[in-house]
Q: What sequence folds into this?
């Protein structure tokens, strides 16, 4: 058995390491080919421009669209802002209503909040207890003045995959602009923008073994979608997003997406095996709950609540593992995960949740170590937990009157 | 969360974990917090005939600093009279453990747990 290196990284949905092949492709564009892709008067600029256009084609190939439909941004947060604010502001004469979902990433939710301050009306759709959208509830939320719908493809916390095929069909039929945040989806699910009725799609490099600080937005040309730019300046990226292009970052994203396209089928199969092994190894612990649907879910994600154990203290106990939690104590706001609460999970289970996300460099030995460690530490923390003691004594915790503080 | 070594020590080696029989005459039990808020502390004191706390035990559901605060408190109350125990302030706990500002509520909860345990003991005895 190979020697394990600690801590073991199981937080691939937070970010991924840059694949060494990606890093290697990027380096020449920092030192040797450092030109500004907007320089038209010499070969430094031409070389850089060529690299940028190659990368654009690589990103487009992964999601099956025309490279002209891809523009570069600083990441998925910026892409979400540009797509949502840009479309809402451009189409506001048609209507003021936007629909999104309660479990979206903050980059979408906070952008929608900002639009509410600007006078738009936003519906935040609830989800079913498996984390998926109820299509009937979505249809019921549509109004004649709905101009924009934003739904993520893969949820960052629970990994569930929303049915963007059906939602896209409905939006197209009604002439509503449809934006999809796909930051967590590239390399994990097949995306075919030729077939999908999606108008705008956000991408990030660093969730798919590329560098941080670079992302892209897909903007459909047929039928054409228009946006109001949010960043003004030199008119780069056909005026959608001004600012000198970060050639090395773009090259990195292109290479990362090229590798994803080539390797995703084999990789996802391997990762699914590891995820199932992990879940099998943990599901025999008493009072363990899986958060989110298991079938409509990417292979990489396992989100589990260990009842009667608080998430932050569990993370401290399993310091050999780098994971994240939906517990209040790991967030700046002291609020437990709004995603888990949207599933109807009670606060205790939200506080007790751990997100394991598996990736390209995870090994079977690492998963086995994690299973063993969790068995030990859950037992230890439950010995310490008054709630566990009450549960074992047969007390129904819902009938206890707590002194809330 | 970057914790002090004292928090880590109490977290790794919690003192006086356990349970006394709730019904015992010489035991006072305080349970504070709520699962929905992410922390629940149960503190129990065993009081001698001379009114001095002889022993203490705790169980805590919560973050590392909640566990450390309650573990520390079980050490501090031992050997104190009930009134002396009531004089333990959350600021003393926070200072001893060098709690970060967002974790001050854990020390407040620990102070409340002492009060609740002492009250429970006194109620048992006053009602006679």
A:
């Amino acid at each position: 058995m190979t020697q394990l290196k600690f801590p073991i990284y199981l937080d691939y949905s937070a970010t991924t390491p840059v694949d060494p092949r990606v890093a290697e492709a990027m380096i020449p564009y920092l030192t040797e080919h450092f030109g500004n892709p907007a320089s038209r008067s010499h070969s430094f600029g031409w070389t850089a421009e060529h690299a940028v256009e190659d990368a654009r084609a690589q990103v487009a190939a992964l999601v099956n669209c025309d490279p002209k439909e891809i523009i570069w941004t600083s990441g998925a947060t910026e892409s979400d802002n540009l797509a949502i604010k840009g479309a809402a502001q451009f189409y506001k004469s048609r209507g003021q209503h936007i629909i999104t979902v309660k479990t979206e990433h903050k980059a979408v939710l906070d952008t929608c909040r900002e639009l509410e301050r600007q006078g738009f009306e936003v519906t935040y759709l609830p989800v079913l207890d498996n984390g998926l959208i109820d299509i009937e509830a979505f249809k019921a939320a549509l109004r004649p003045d709905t101009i924009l719908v934003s739904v993520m493809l893969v949820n960052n916390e629970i990994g569930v995959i929303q049915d963007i095929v059906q939602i896209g069909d409905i939006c197209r039929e009604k002439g509503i602009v449809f934006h999809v945040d796909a930051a967590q989806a590239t390399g994990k699910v097949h995306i075919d923008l030729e077939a999908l009725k999606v108008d705008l799609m956000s991408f990030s490099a660093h969730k798919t073994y590329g560098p941080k600080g670079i992302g892209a937005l897909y903007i459909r040309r047929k039928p054409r979608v228009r946006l109001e730019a949010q960043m003004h300046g030199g008119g780069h990226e056909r005026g959608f997003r001004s600012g000198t292009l970060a050639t090395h970052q773009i090259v990195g994203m292109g290479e990362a997406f090229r590798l994803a396209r080539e390797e995703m089928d084999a990789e996802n199969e391997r990762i699914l095996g590891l995820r199932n092994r992990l879940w099998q190894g943990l599901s025999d612990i008493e009072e363990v709950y899986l958060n989110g649907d298991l079938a409509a879910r990417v292979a990489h994600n396992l989100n589990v609540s260990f009842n009667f154990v608080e998430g932050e203290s569990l993370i401290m106990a399993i310091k050999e593992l780098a994971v994240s939690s939906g517990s209040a104590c790991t967030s700046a706001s002291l609020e437990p995960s709004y995603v888990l609460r949207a599933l109807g999970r009670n606060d205790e289970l939200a506080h007790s949740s751990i997100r394991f996300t598996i990736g390209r460099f995870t090994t079977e030995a690492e998963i086995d170590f994690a299973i063993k460690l969790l068995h030990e530490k859950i037992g230890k923390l439950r010995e310490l937990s008054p709630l566990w003691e009450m549960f074992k004594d047969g007390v129904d915790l819902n009938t206890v009157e707590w002194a809330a503080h | 969360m970057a914790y002090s070594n004292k928090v880590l020590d109490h977290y790794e080696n919690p003192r006086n974990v356990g349970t006394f029989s709730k019904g015992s005459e010489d035991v006072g039990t305080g349970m504070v917090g709520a699962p929905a808020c992410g922390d629940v502390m149960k503190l129990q004191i065993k009081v001698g005939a001379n009114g001095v706390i002889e022993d203490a035990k705790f169980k805590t559901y919560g973050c590392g600093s909640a566990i450390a605060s309650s573990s520390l408190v079980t050490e501090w109350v031992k050997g104190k009279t009930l009134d002396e125990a009531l004089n333990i302030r959350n600021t003393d706990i926070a200072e001893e453990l060098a709690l970060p500002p967002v974790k001050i509520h854990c020390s407040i909860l620990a102070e409340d747990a002492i009060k609740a345990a002492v009250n429970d003991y006194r109620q048992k005895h006053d009602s006679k």
In short: The radius of gyration of chain B is 14 Å. The helical segments of chain B are 5-12, 64-77, 82-86, 90-97, 104-126.
